[in-house]
Design brief:
Largest sheet: none
Helix content: 40-55%
Order of helices and strands: HH
Number of helices: 2
Structural class: mainly alpha
Shape: flat
Distance between the termini: 15 Å
């Protein structure tokens, strides 16, 4: 997506989700800024998370993430999807 990211992750026991997101944002911001030839803040502070409680919810979130670029009318190459 051009302005946000969807992730489905399962943290290891004892690893805080906030620490994972901090690492993802830090690493990706450095790479994106490097690729774009710029510096500075990239990500907003907040994030929205949901707890997946069962297989049915997991399938629903997977489908939502997969269909999101289509709903946004993005073409191949304008987004990255990996399952």
């Amino acid at each position: 997506m051009p302005n946000h990211v969807h992730l489905l992750i399962k943290p290891r026991v004892g690893v805080e989700l906030s620490k994972i997101l901090q690492s993802v944002k830090s690493f990706s911001a450095k790479k994106i800024n490097q690729n774009e030839g710029r510096t500075g803040k990239l990500w907003q502070v907040e994030s929205y998370d949901r707890i997946v409680r069962n297989d049915r919810e997991l399938e629903r979130y997977e489908r939502y993430i997969e269909e999101n670029p289509v709903k946004a009318k993005l073409r191949e190459g304008e987004f990255f999807f990996r399952k």
